[in-house]
Amino acid sequence: MADDQVRVKYDIDGLLKRIPPYQAEFFTGFVPTAEHLQGWRRTVREREPETNDRAQLRTVWDDPRDPASRILIDIIACASAADAVEMLATMLENNQLERVLDGPGGLGLVSFMHPPYAPPAVYFVYGNLSVLLASFGSKPADVVPVARQLSARMEERPAVREPTLSLSTPENIVAAGRELALDYKATYPGGEDAYWKFVVTNGTVVRREGGLRLKPFASGEVRVESYLIEPGRPPQFGQLSLRVGDSVRP
Q1: How many folded domains does the chain comprise?
Q2: Quick one: 213 and 136 in the same domain?
C-alpha cells in the first residue's frame, strides 16, 4: 500500500469512494491487440505469474511508420476495482517525478499523466485494471490517443445476445453483501489473446484465491453479463440473474 504522503497527494481515499458499488466491470486475461490499437504493431508480449490475485501483462508496440516511436503498456488485472486503485497508488509512488498531473477525461475511473517536460506517460484505472502507457523509444510518442483507443475498447460491450457462455452460482437466492462463487465456462476455449469481461448491475465481482466471487449490493436482483472476446472470432455471451434478499446482519 502506498504511503500516506502519496495517498494525500493524489486523494487515493477519495478515488476509492468514487467506485460505484451498484455497477461493475471486471476483466480476466485482458490483452491489447492490433484491433485495439490501430496503427501500431505489437512486438513484445510478456505475462508475469499471478500473485496475490493480481496478474500483470506487459506489451510493447512499435509504430511501423517510425521505428523510433515505441509505447510500453503495462496492464495489471487486480482482484477488485478497489485493488486497482491501490495498485495505481503504488505506481504513482514508484514514479520518480515530484508530481504527475491529472490526466485526460474519459479514461476510466481516473487518469494521471506526466508533465510536458517528462517522457510521455499516462496512468488510468478501468474496472479492476490498473494501466500504464509510456513512451518507450528514442523519439517521444503521444500516448494519449493510444490510451483513448484502449479505454474505448475496454468500454465496449459486443452486440451479441444469444447466450453461449455458462454462468452459475451455488445458490439462486443470495443476501445483499454476501459473496458467493461465480463459475463461468465457454462453449469453446479462447486463444492467448482471448479475454473475459463481466458487467454487473447491483453488485460487483472480485477475485479471491484464484476464483471469482459475486457480491450483490442491495435487495432486489443482481444481473451479470459476460463476454469472451477474441480477435478474429465471434464474441461469446452469457448472462445470469439472481434474487437478492435483505443484507447480511453483522
Answers
A1: 2
A2: no
Q: Is 25 a domain residue? A: no
CA atoms lying within 13 Å on the CB side of residue 230: 14
Q: How confident is the model over 22-31, as a mean pLDDT?
A: 94
Query: What sign does the CA torsion over 181, 189, 193, 58 have?
Result: positive
Instruction: Say if residue 132 is in the same domain as residue 207.
Output: no
Confidence bin at 128 (pLDDT 50/70/90):
very high
Question: What's the mean pLDDT in 108-129?
Answer: 97
CB 86 within 8 A of CB 76: no
* pLDDT-based confidence at residue 250 (cuts at 50, 70, 90): very low
Within-domain flag for 160: no
CA 167/CA 157 separation, integer angstroms: 17
Q: Identify which of 85, 184, 74 has the alpha carbon closest to the alpha carbon of residue 128.
A: 85
Chosen domain end from 128, 155, 182: 155
User: Within this chain, do residues 16 and 66 fall inside the same structural domain, yes or no?
Assistant: yes
pLDDT (tens digit, 9 = 90+) per residue, 64-97?
999 899 999 999 999 999 999 999 999 999 998 9
Going from the C-alpha of 29 to that of each of 32, 47, 57, 191, 193, the distances in angstroms are 10, 10, 9, 11, 8
Cell 510500453 -> residue: 72
Q: Which helix (H) or strand (E) holds 155?
A: helix 144-155
Phi, psi of 9 (to 5 degrees): -55, -40
Range of the domain at 115: 4-20+30-155
